[in-house]
Specification:
By secondary structure, this protein is an alpha+beta fold. Helix content is about 45%, strand content about 20%.
Length: about 150
């Protein structure tokens, strides 16, 4: 290849390489991207399961109703809400129950000793977790929480 032909070939090839490099690939790769792997398991009815568990065990039971269009993973929800409860002063277990909902948005509800807060959308779930933690700690400090073996 002559010097002149080399310049004609490599100039446009180099430019094409930069264009390909700078072009966002997200739209084409979105379908090929592997789904996020979760370490949580789903239950048939998170609401009922969390409610029963919350009446039987100390701590806060969290029901998460996963929406069909949520970009937040179940592990992210669990991590963030656990952090909110712990930072608010809850030192009892935080137990999560997940189910797959048939609506677009994800919802969250909190249960303990027969009390329920929610459901809330994800936007409101964090500030409400803090409020639930404060209520839980207050009731616990006044011995207002009782648990039953049957969950009734």
């Amino acid at each position: 290849m002559t010097k002149r032909n080399t310049a004609k070939f490599f100039g446009p090839a180099l430019m094409l390489g930069f264009i390909v490099f700078l072009t966002p690939l997200s739209s084409g790769l979105a379908q090929d991207r592997p789904a996020a792997v979760s370490t949580v398991s789903l239950v048939e009815n998170a609401d009922r399961t969390a409610s029963t568990y919350g009446r039987q065990h100390p701590g806060i039971a969290v029901a998460v109703f996963l929406g069909t269009e949520s970009s937040v993973t179940s592990d992210q929800i669990k991590t963030i809400l656990t952090r909110e409860f712990v930072q608010a002063g809850v030192d009892d277990p935080i137990t999560f129950f997940f189910d797959q909902n048939d609506v677009a948005g994800t919802g969250v509800a909190y249960y303990y000793a027969g009390y329920v807060d929610g459901p809330f959308n994800l936007k409101d779930a964090r500030p409400q977790a803090i409020k639930t933690a404060e209520d839980y700690i207050f009731r616990k400090s006044r011995n207002l929480l009782s648990y039953s073996a049957s969950g009734q």
